[in-house]
Structure to design on (214 residues):
């Protein structure tokens, strides 16, 4: 499997690795499936996580590698959660909703505290990560985003957008150019998917928390 971490080709001076390219291509497919509210988004995310784990584990980016472990675990959780069928719409896709203010508070608070904790750990043990705080931010942000997705919350798209803002420059800086390019595409898909879930949550007649975007 050493070929996964070998160079596939070079674009504009950026070296593209096979693992980086394959894992992120599958990740894009997973995001598109999530936009369509298809349960197959989870096995796709699981496979993407396994491949990207092999890539980041060799690059001293423990947060990004750990993020893939989280992707694998949460993908299994999300798959089981969506497969229960309790929130299924008539077309077989998952029903979506806005989070309550309490849930939003838990997500934001967990993201802040988690980033401080993981960033502090990476700072205390520099061998774990060359970019401790951005790496910690991405690691924790991914947990928050995927948990919100598993719960069918529209806010998961906002969480992914915030992860992308840091993920693009971090991946370019650490030699994962394909990941950087893909994160830019992620941004476009996130905005599109956010709009779709937003409209569906309103059309379903589900209550929108006071103060939520209209």
């Amino acid at each position: 499997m050493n070929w996964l971490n070998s160079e596939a080709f070079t674009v504009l001076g950026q070296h593209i690795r096979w693992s980086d390219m394959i894992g992120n291509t599958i990740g894009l497919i997973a995001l598109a499936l999530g936009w369509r509210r298809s349960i197959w988004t989870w096995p796709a995310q699981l496979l993407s996580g396994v491949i990207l784990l092999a890539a980041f584990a060799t690059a001293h980016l423990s947060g990004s590698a750990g993020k893939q472990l989280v992707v694998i675990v949460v993908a299994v959780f999300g798959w089981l959660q969506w497969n229960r069928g309790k929130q299924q719409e008539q077309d077989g896709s998952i029903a979506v909703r806005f989070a309550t203010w309490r849930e939003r508070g838990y997500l934001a608070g967990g993201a802040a505290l988690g980033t401080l904790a993981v960033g502090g750990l990476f700072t205390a043990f520099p061998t774990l990560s060359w970019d401790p705080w951005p790496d910690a931010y991405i690691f924790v942000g991914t947990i928050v985003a995927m948990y919100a997705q598993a719960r069918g919350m529209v806010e998961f798209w906002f969480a992914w957008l915030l992860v992308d803002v840091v993920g693009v420059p971090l991946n370019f800086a650490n030699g994962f150019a394909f990941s950087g390019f893909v994160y830019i595409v992620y941004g476009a898909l996130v905005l599109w998917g956010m709009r779709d879930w937003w409209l569906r949550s309103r059309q379903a007649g589900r209550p929108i928390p006071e103060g939520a975007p209209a």
User: Anything to note?
Assistant: The helical segments are 18-35, 41-56, 62-83, 101-124, 132-150, 156-173, 177-203.
